[in-house]
Design goal:
alpha+beta, 3 helices, 7 strands, 31% helix
Amino acid sequence: MKKFFLILLLVIAIIGVVFILIKKFSGSKATEETRSFETINLRISGMRVTQEYEIICRGGETEILLYQIFYANGKDERRLEKSTVVKTEKIIEILNSCGFSGWNGFKGEHPKNVSDGDMFRLEAVINDSEKIYAEGSANFPKGYSEFKKELNELLDDKN
């Protein structure tokens, strides 16, 4: 009987470890759909340019603002470069197609043998109060490039 319980405990422990590893490496929110959002802030810093996307949900419409960040008078200052207003459902569609909810906790370490590249920091509030935070240096979550491309296309359609 003792042997049976030891084997049972061992099986439970193995299942627990496998479950933890699956959650850690697959992203616990990767399959959750984004239903709503409040704000999304994406800051991208390169060698010469820093940009900041500010995306604000205002009910059925969403405002997208793109700022250039420059250093003046001893501090960072933002200059609005482009802006547009789109249907909120379009942004939610983009977020889901890019796997946005699965980005939470992403920390993209700078790859070896890469001497240059953009750094990013993303903060968002989705699905009523869920906070998303991701960052990286020349290393981005799956769907990031598509997300940025979609934002730029929306901004270019207006301007």
